[in-house]
Amino acid sequence: IAFPMNHLPDFEFTGMLKEFVKEGEVLGEGVNDTRIEIYNKTTDTEELLTMSNPVSNFVFHFERENKYIVLIRKEGYFAKRFDVIVDQDGCTICFEGLEMSRLSGIFDNHQPTELSASITGDISLRPIKMNEIIEIENIYYKFNKANIKETAESALDNLVNVMRTTPIIIELSSHTDSRGDDEYNMKLSQERAESAVAYIVKKGIARDRITAKGYGESRLVNECENNVNCSEDKHQANRRTEFAVTSIMEDNLYFDKSLKEIIDLEKQSDKNA
After folding, report:
1. What is the pTM of this model?
2. From the centroid of its chain, how far is CA 195?
3. Distance CA 124, CA 78 (A)
4. DSSP3 helix / strand / coil % (the chain, rounded to 5)
5. Which contiguous run of DSSP H or E holds residue 114?
6. Which DSSP state fits 237?
7. Could you tell me where the beta strands, DSSP code E, fall in 41-143?
8. Which pLDDT tens digit goes with each residue over 116-158?
9. Exposed e or buried b for every residue in 147-174, given b needs 16+ CB within 10 A?
10. Please, are residues 4 and 117 in contact by the beta-carbon 8 Å criterion?
């Protein structure tokens, strides 16, 4: 998400922490007592650490020619992590991992030598609910194959980041549409689930934290059963990958570590991958 500005690109960002309610709906009440960390990737320093933010908002000044990682954690919620890029890589300011519809309050007074822009963003924090099914969007496989496409890796990377900072054990499930033999679809979906799990494990997540489960065409989300004429879009809705939290961990390699320590572990994990 990029915003064109005319001034020297420094920005004051106000993050409003709100509870996720349902996809596409207005966010719920504010969330207090969060742990907020902001790490500067350019200077390799942690610039903000608030162990227990008592209110449901925070303010931070993002400086030009820097890249940042923001991590927000609260017990009982999925961790929220996103990147901010300022005046680099073609971005005046870009937010990666925040929905465009959640950003507002942009002010630009067009003074080229002053800090003259402010942005307000609603940041959704999703409560952890046992066995709630959450779809992992943009997971695609090659036709009739179990290998994930490279375009799916970023979506799985998001789940990796969540698992690194949220002490959860999950079932990762894969589903097919109704076309083809039922038994074959069950086998293919199991192979696809295992392929996605293998990718996540390669990124440093312990194998015993994930169960791979293929459901074939047994859990269709619409009426497109065998011999029903449906559009490709409707069939695509059934070809999905999901996860559900099955339990909470007592201990986690990452959960009690600072954002900088987590990033150092990630760098080491990437070297070993």
Report:
1. 0.85
2. 19
3. 10
4. 25, 35, 40
5. none
6. H
7. 45-53, 57-62, 66-73, 80-88, 91-96, 103-108, 117-125, 133-136
8. 578 899 999 999 999 999 999 877 666 677 777 777 788 899 9
9. ebeeebeebbebbbbbbbbbbbebbbbb
10. no
